[in-house]
Amino acid sequence: MRVALVGAGIVGVTTAYELAALGHEVTVFERRGSVAAEASFANAGVVAPGYVTPWAAPGMSIKVLRHLFARHAAVRFGGASALAQLPWMWRWWRACRPAAYGPNRAAMHRLASFSRERMLELTRSLRLDYEQMPGWTVLLRDERELRGAQAGLALLRELGVAHDVVDGTRARQLEPGLNPETPLHAAIHLAQDGVGNCRQFAHLLKAEAQRLGAVFRFDASVRSLAPGTRPALQLVEGSIHEAEAIVICAGVQANALLAGIGCRLPLAPVYGYSITAPLRHMEGAAHHAPRAALMDERYKVAISRLGMRVRVSGSAEIGGTLEHKNPAALRTLYKVLDDWFPGAVLVREAQAWKGARPMLPDGPPVLGESGAPGIWLNLGHGSSGWALACGSARVLAERLSGRAAPIDTGRLTLARLRGEG
Ligand SMILES: Cc1cc2nc3c(=O)[nH]c(=O)nc-3n(C[C@H](O)[C@H](O)[C@H](O)COP(=O)(O)OP(=O)(O)OC[C@H]3O[C@@H](n4cnc5c(N)ncnc54)[C@H](O)[C@@H]3O)c2cc1C
Q: Residues 102-160: pLDDT tens digits?
């Protein structure tokens, strides 16, 4: 089938690869100059299916309110423009109810587990090297944080996710670079989860998709869509591209296109930040750096080792713009880096980045038909797009090819967001 795909973030690239692998003739349209230039550019890189859960969870609204008034807040409002997101926040709040959370959590975990399997399969069969490193450790600074982690631990047990709860001494053996002067009470360690460079993976998989015949058209901004038995898209520069199917992987900008086909998703940009810095060039510097990925539970900040660099990421900002970086959010990242790995990196060479997570209010992405003939969606992966991309791509490619989805996709369709699921 001739398939046109809009968006070459991690979701678009993995989808292009899977479609090409199933024998489709794929053309990708991307408005930027390369793959993974937006939300997939400098994310934390964590792939931990046990931690892929909806942000809309019971008790979260109280936690969010508490965070809003903290100095190193994990959640912030980006000024008056946050008011425009009130309808989204209302839906998020409603999705925090246990009756909605349970099925959403199960759907996300199922997809995340399948996605990791598919990522490992691709890594092995295509011999991909993208600075991947196994190990995910959640740092709990004191007894209170360990008590607070009990609900999450019960969930890991319920989902059958292999993990260890270790004391501070053992955690420091697992991650010997941790600053001995910062108190560490305990940690949750997931040996099978880990970290990898999402952008690098996207570049490698793009090359593999090209080998299978996929064509990538960069600096090609899609203006509008026309559904039908031969759906078409029109580029901003005017040319029209016809296909037999069109897949929208346009991340947070998707609604601008979907409006034209009468489909609107409750998608909001939830901004996050990262800083990436090279390891210090000195004897033994690597011993003071993280080995894999860690999460500071108090500040909800991830610290990831990516080859010879360290990336620190966090913050959830509702409202605001991509261009304006809040210095307070960046200060929190530097503080957490300094708490745990002081002197490990060349801070003066650090690069700061802000990205927009394409968030649906209740958690899982939407994969499948849009309701308009010939137009398919792979959208709304929120804070877990890297962890969910390979699985989502495979599910979409199988469905578009008229085959059964490899996992239950009941809660991954548009019907759920219309209250029919
Ligand atoms: C700070 C931060 C940390 C994160 N950490 C993690 C993590 O540790 N693990 C994890 O799993 N996820 C993480 N995420 C989430 C993850 O990065 C996103 O979910 C993922 O990148 C979304 O991918 P995407 O392909 O849907 O969107 P994008 O990467 O934004 O791609 C969409 C693409 O569509 C293109 N596009 C849009 N409209 C058009 C158009 N009209 N014409 C042509 N092209 C168009 C855009 O240019 C863009 O390239 C993090 C996100 C942030 C911000």
A: 999 999 999 999 999 999 999 999 999 999 999 999 999 999 999 999 988 998 998 89
What is the DSSP track for 274-303?
A: EEEEEBPSSTTGGGGS-SSEEEETTTTEEE
For residue 281, the model assigns a pLDDT of 74
Residues 6 or more apart whose CB falls under 8 angstroms from that of 274 comprise: 42, 43, 44, 311, 312, 313, 314, 333, 352, 353, 355
Q: Are 354 and 376 in contact (CB under 8 A)?
A: no
What pLDDT sits at residue 61? 81
Most informative mutation of 40, 118, 271, 315 for ligand 1 (most atoms within 8 A of CB): 40
Q: How far is the CA of 250 from the centre of ligand 1 (A)?
A: 8
Which residue's alpha carbon is nearest to atom 3 within ligand 1?
43
In the three-class reduction of DSSP (H, G, I as helix; E, B as strand; rest coil), residue 389 is classed as: helix
What is d(CA 94, CA 98) in angstroms, rounded to the nearest whole number? 10
Whole-model pTM: value is 0.96
Regarding the beta carbon of 27 and ligand 1, being less than 6 Å apart is answered: no
Domain boundaries, the chain: 49-80+131-195+268-359
- Average of per-residue pLDDT values in the chain: 94
CA of residue 401 to ligand 1 center, whole Å: 25
15 C-alpha to center of ligand 1: Å? 13
**Domain 49-80+131-195+268-359, second-level architecture:** 2-Layer Sandwich (3.30)
